[in-house]
Specification:
- Two copies of one chain form a homodimer.
- The first copy, chain A, is an alpha/beta fold.
- Chain A has 17 helices and 24 strands.
- The longest helix of chain A has 17 residues, at about 35-50.
- Chain A starts with 10 loop residues before the first helix and ends in a 13-residue tail after the last helix.
- The interface between A and B is large, with 48 and 48 residues.
C-alpha cells in the first residue's frame, strides 16, 4: 500500500461518529440509551479492557449474545482492540458452540446473562476453554478500563470470523478483512439510504455475517440503533411507532410475521426493510405497501460479508401493479456499488447468455469476498478455486442483467432466516446406530419458509421411531436444524452411488405442512 | 495489495451503471440525450479511439471544453483508456494553457469547437504540441472506434492531474489516484444523497478538481447529468424546472446569482446545492429556503479531490431560525466518511484546543489526498511535509469539533469560484518594466466574493497608468486574474524585508467596490 494511504477500516467509523454525532442517540436497548459520545466511550473502554486482561492483536474474542448493546459494542470494540471478532449463533447447541470455540480458540468469550448456562455447557466440552466474561463482569471491566484504540496498519488483516457450520468435524470460519467491512458498511449505508435521521431496528441477528455489516453502516450514518433481543412482531410494531423506526433487515419469515401481525398499522414516516434468502411474494409486497413499508431485496452469503447483489429498484418500476413489481423484485439483482464482479457461469467457466433461460452458477470476485476459511486451506481453495468465489447457487441472467436464482445451493436449507447445511443434519442422523443412510432436503413450509425433511434407510434388523430419531438429532444440533419429518425407506441412487436428491425433492410435497397454522 | 482484492477505481462505476441503469437517461446536453447504455458505449469508444491513435497507458490526455457531454465522456473515458486525464480551465490565457501543456506533455488535446482558437494559440507557443482533436474529429473517431477498457491493476496509479496554477514558471499538477477518486465518488454520492431518481445540473466546472468527483458520483448513482456549458441564472432556472433538477454544486457567487434571479421560483421537488469556498450567509440561506433549496456547505482543495470537510447537518438544527442555521452552516465542518483525519495544528504541530478561539492550520491525511505534484518533488514535500497535507488555511475548532476557517490561505483570492494565487499576479505585475515591487491581496466584492487588488511601487523615473498596467496583466494571465484596482505607493515591510500583507489587507476596504451593481 502507498505510504500515505490510510487503511480502510470500520474502526475509523466509530471514531468519526463519536465526535460528529456526539449528542445523537446511538443505541436504544430497553430502558438504556447511549449517545454517540457515550457509545464511542464504551467501545473504547471495551477495547481497553480487553487489552488490560491480556488480549493481544490478532487474538480471537468470541461473543454469545442476542441483539443487545453488548453485541453492538463488541462488534465495534473487539476490532478496536486489535482482536478478531467471533459472533456466535445463539441458536446453536452446546456441542456446536464447543466445536467453533475449539476451532477459533478465542482468548475470551463474552456472554449475555441468559446464555451463561449454554456457554458453560459448551466450555465444559473443551480442554482449554476461553475466559468467560458475563454481562455483569463486562460492566465492571468497562467501568474501570481506559479507552483504547489499536491502530490498524493492514486493511487486509482479519476483523472477524463468521462460522457457517458448527459441527466439530466441519467448522468453516469465513475470515472478514477490514477493507471489505469498511466498503460494505459504506455500501449498505448508501443503498439502504441511512442518514442521521434514520432509526434502525435490530431484527437481523448480529451473529449473521456481522449483521450484514449494518453495525458499522448505521454507525457511519449517525443513525440510531434500536436493539431487539428477541424477534416478536408485537414488540417490533410497538418499537416502530414509539422509536420512529425507519429501517431494518429481516429474513422473509420475519417479514411475513411483521406484515401479517394483527397490531400492524402503517409506519408513519415510512419503513424500509432489506430482506434476503427468498424473494418477496406479490402478496407480501402488497401487504407491505399498504403498511408504508418499502422492501429492498438483497442477496449474499456469509462468504461475501452479507449482501453482494441488490435488486436495484428502477424509477421505471414505480407505480406498477403489485404482481409486476413482485416479478421484478423477486430477482436477486445486480452487484452493489462495492461488491465487484458477479458472473453466472456454466460448467466450463463461461458466462451463460443473459436470456433468462440458461442456468449457471453464481460466482463473485471482489473486495467483499472473504480472505478464506480460517485455518482451512483445502476448503478455501474449494470455495475460491481461481480467485472467484463459487456460490453453489444456480441462476439465470435476464436480458437486463439482473440475476435470478433458479435452484439454491443444493445442500442448504433456509429455515426462519437460518442456513442449515443438509450434510450436517445427515451426519447427525447417521450417528444413530440404527441409521444406514440418510438424506435431508428442504421442504416448503408456510411459517419457516423451508424446513429440513429427512429420508432415512435403517440398518437391517433395527428400528427407531420418527420421534426418537428427531430427539437424537436435537441432542446433537441446534433444535431448528432437526428434521420436521422423517420418511423411512430405501434411497434412490445414481450409477456411481450418489443419492439422487432431486428425486427426493420432487417427492417432498409442501402439502406435508400445509395444515400447520404458522403460529 | 492482497491478490484477490479488486483495485478501487472509478472505471468500475461506469461499467456497472451502463448495465444496471441501461435505459435511464445518463446525459442531457442541449438537444442530445444519451441513456446509460449509450453513455457507456461512447465512453468505451473514446477509450478505444485513444488507444487506436497511439495513446498508451500512463500517457496524459488534456481536455479543453466547458461542461459538455465531451467533458463527461472524457472524465470517464480517458481513465478507461489507461491514460491520465488533464482537464484544462477554459478561463485561462493561451500562455497559461501552454505552460500546463509544456509541463504535462499530453499526447492528445481534445478541444470543444469554440475553444479551438485558444488551443491553437497555446499550441503555437510549444515546441512539441500535442495532437489536437476537435469536437468534430472526436465524433468521427468515436463512430469507428471499438469499445475498450484498460484493466487498472494498481489503485494507487494516477487517474488525473489537476493544475492549480498555470504560469510557465510554477505549474502545480495535483496527481489524483484511482483509489481516492473511487472513494470520493462514493462519499459524494452518499453525502449529497444522489440516487437513480436524481438529476444533477453541471453548474460546477468539471475542470475544478474533476468536478469534485461528481462525474463519477452521479454516474455511480445512476442519476442524470444535465450539461451546462455556460453558467447563466435564467438558463439554470429553466433547466431546474424543465429537467426536474434535484442537485448541483456551485460557488457562492453562482449561488447568489441563482437565488437572486428574477425568474427564480421554488424548485418543485426540492433542490440540494453543495457549495464551498465561502460560507453561505444568513440572507442567502433564507432566500434559498424560500425557493425550496437546501444548502450543503463543503470545504476542500484541489489537493484533496475537492471536498474533504462537510458541514454535516444535524437533526437538532432543523427548524432553527435562519440566523442560527447560518451560524452553524457557516462552518467548514467535519471530515467526510472517507476523507480520513483532519486536524487544526499550531506552529509546533500540536492540535489546538477545540474552544472556538485558538487558531491553527488545517492539516489533512487520508485516501483523498493527492499523491503529490506531478514532476515536482520539492513542492510535494512542502505541501505534505510529514504525511499530512498542510492547507495554509487558518481555522478554529469549535467545542463540537466543527472546524471553521478564520483566515484563508494568505496567498489565495477566491473570485467567482476561481482560485487566484496572488504570487502569480504579482509576478505578472513585476514583469512590467516600470514596476519595482508589487503585492496583491483580496478585496471583498459584492458580485465576485473577492477580487484581486494590487499595491504597486514603481521604479524611480518611470510611470504607468492603472489602466495600462491592468492591460499588461491581462496580456499574460486569464482576465479574471487581473487586479480590479491598483494602488500606487511604497509597500510596508517587515524587518527581514517581507511585505506586510496584513497591513495592506487591513487597508483594502470593501467600499472600493460597494457602488458596483454586481451586474
Amino acid at each position: 500500500m502507498y505510504p500515505r494511504f490510510e487503511p480502510l477500516t470500520p474502526t475509523s467509523i466509530i471514531a468519526r461518529s463519536a465526535v460528529v454525532f456526539a449528542d445523537r442517540i446511538a443505541v436504544v436497548d430497553g430502558a438504556r440509551r447511549f449517545t454517540y459520545a457515550e457509545f464511542g466511550d464504551r467501545v473504547g473502554r471495551l477495547a481497553g479492557a480487553l487489552c488490560e486482561i491480556g488480549v493481544n492483536p490478532g487474538d480471537r474474542v468470541a461473543v454469545l449474545t442476542p441483539n443487545t448493546h453488548i453485541a453492538l459494542e463488541a462488534t465495534l470494540g473487539v476490532p478496536q482492540s486489535g482482536a478478531v471478532l467471533v459472533m456466535l449463533n445463539t441458536r446453536l447447541s452446546a456441542q456446536e458452540i464447543a466445536g467453533i470455540l475449539a476451532h477459533a480458540e478465542p482468548a475470551v468469550l463474552i456472554v449475555q446473562t441468559e446464555l451463561v448456562d449454554l456457554a458453560g455447557r459448551a466450555c465444559a466440552l473443551l480442554a482449554d476453554p476461553p475466559r468467560v466474561i458475563t454481562a455483569k463482569e463486562y460492566e465492571s471491566l468497562l467501568a474501570v478500563a481506559s479507552p483504547y484504540a489499536h491502530e490498524v496498519r493492514d486493511e487486509g488483516s482479519p476483523i472477524a470470523l463468521n462460522y457457517t457450520s458448527g459441527t466439530t468435524g466441519n467448522p468453516k470460519g469465513a475470515i472478514y478483512h477490514h477493507r471489505g467491512a469498511f466498503l460494505q458498511a459504506l455500501s449498505m449505508a448508501y443503498h439502504a439510504g441511512l442518514g442521521p435521521n434514520s432509526v434502525y431496528l435490530w431484527t437481523l441477528p448480529m451473529f449473521h455475517c456481522n449483521g450484514w455489516c449494518f453495525p458499522w453502516a448505521v454507525t457511519a450514518a449517525g443513525a440510531t440503533h434500536v436493539c431487539l433481543p428477541k424477534v416478536d412482531a408485537a414488540e417490533i410494531w410497538s418499537l416502530v411507532h414509539s422509536e420512529g423506526v425507519t429501517h431494518c433487515c429481516a429474513a422473509p419469515t420475519v417479514l411475513n410475521s411483521i406484515t401479517g401481525h394483527p397490531t400492524a398499522t402503517p409506519a408513519q414516516g415510512g419503513l424500509r426493510i432489506a430482506t434476503g434468502g427468498a424473494p418477496p411474494s406479490p402478496a407480501l409486497i402488497e401487504r407491505a405497501t399498504a403498511l408504508n413499508i418499502d422492501i429492498l431485496h438483497l442477496y449474499g452469503l456469509t462468504e461475501t460479508f452479507g449482501p453482494s447483489l441488490i435488486c436495484q429498484p428502477q424509477p421505471l418500476w414505480e407505480g406498477l401493479p403489485a404482481a409486476q413489481t413482485a416479478r421484478h423484485k423477486a430477482r436477486q439483482g445486480v452487484p452493489t456499488l462495492v461488491s465487484g464482479r458477479v458472473r453466472v457461469i456454466d460448467a466450463n467457466g463461461m458466462d451463460v447468455p443473459p436470456d433468462g433461460q440458461a442456468i449457471g452458477e453464481i460466482a463473485i470476485r471482489g473486495n467483499t469476498v472473504m480472505s478464506g476459511y480460517y485455518r482451512d486451506a483445502t476448503q478455501t481453495s474449494q470455495a475460491i478455486p481461481e480467485g472467484w468465489l463459487v456460490t453453489g447457487d444456480l441462476a439465470v441472467q435476464h436480458p437486463d442483467r439482473y440475476v435470478e436464482i433458479r435452484d439454491r445451493s443444493k445442500d442448504v436449507i433456509i429455515s426462519g432466516g437460518e442456513n442449515i447445511a443438509s450434510v450436517e443434519v445427515e451426519q447427525a442422523l447417521a450417528a444413530h446406530p440404527a441409521v444406514s443412510e440418510a438424506a435431508v432436503v428442504a421442504c416448503p413450509h408456510p411459517r419457516w419458509g423451508e424446513v429440513p425433511v429427512a429420508y432415512v434407510h435403517l440398518r437391517e434388523d433395527t428400528s427407531v421411531s420418527e420421534k426418537d430419531l428427531i430427539e437424537h438429532v436435537r441432542g446433537l444440533l441446534a433444535h431448528f436444524k432437526a428434521p420436521k419429518k422423517i420418511i423411512f425407506g430405501e434411497l434412490p441412487h445414481t450409477a456411481t452411488g450418489k443419492v439422487q436428491k432431486f428425486k427426493l425433492r420432487a417427492g417432498t410435497s409442501s402439502t406435508l405442512f400445509e395444515s400447520e397454522d404458522g403460529s
